[in-house]
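Researcher: Let's try something more involved. This one mixes different molecule types, so please make sure each is placed in the same coordinate frame as the others.
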Amino acid sequence: MTCKEFEMWMIDYMDGSLSREQRERVDAHLQKCATCRTMLADEEAVHAELHQLPKMSCPDDVIDQLLDAVGDDTDSLTDRIRSWFRVEPVWKFGLAGALALALIVAAIYIPYEKHMATLQQTEYTPEEIEQAKSDIELALAYFHHYAQKTETIIEQQVLSEAALKPIKSSIGKAISNFPPI
Amino acid sequence: MKKLMFVAILLLTTVPFVQAQKNEDYKKHPGYVDFGSLDQFKDAEETVEVFIKGPLLKFVSRATSHEDPDLARLLDNLVVIKVNTFSIDAKDYKEVRDIINNVSKKLDPQKWELMVRAKESDEYTEIYTQFGNDDKLLGLVVMAVEENDEAAFINIAGDIDPSQLGKLSSKFDIPELDSLEIDAKTHHVK
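Model: All components are placed in one shared frame. Result:
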């Protein structure tokens, strides 16, 4: 193992995430190389000090503010990341759309079915049509009867008016010729 | 979401309403007249009630097209044929006159033309006509009452050909209409 390779593996060595074989190779190198042993000791000391520092949590908006300040196109990135976890609106929209579509279909289909049922009902039997025909004939007969009756009344009134006219006029004349009292 | 729901609910509530309206379209025809309730006379000794509208008129028109083409043509253009006649006593006369007066008051401002008002001692008749803008006859109303005899309310609505109606009605004239025997169940002429 070279010192360069050790530098690459050092962090994993410290974390204990190397395989047994890799770890043995690193150990063999450290026995031979004092420079790398010093470098590892320094790194472990820094890590030890960092672990002693109190743990702090980063407020959510700090990341946004930081990314805004950097001026990166990070809004879309955070939005994208959030959108992975925020699938609800999509589902909501989909569900709402499906529900609305179902209601629209129902609103059109149910009355259509009713209308079709009504149309089927209006397939009258020959007896019903025959009865309706005789009803219509009766209705027209009644219409004719009353129209004619009215005509007779009018005729009578006109005739009686005509008959009375000369009498009325002669009475009128008689009255006008009568000497004033 | 709210908008979609609103549209869906609106459709759900309006489509059946529109459909129902369609079945009642004859009521919107300018020649149609609602005489109001005549239920108080439904138990009269003799009654005739004919109320044939849209679809059935078309069916009868189609059914009679070969046998009686004139009648078929007349019926094809009609929307409603309505006849209510009932026998009355002396005490009913005033009530029927009141109904006629009320209908007349309703018709007068609605472009209905009073064609005939005939009055005799014990008889009273009014005939109204409704003409469209192109002078087409769209409606006919006959209201008549004879004391101790009979009252009649007749309405014919549609695109009426007066000469054809005159010809056909005289064809179906029943001279003995005054002494008609009406089947109590079917209200048809025996």
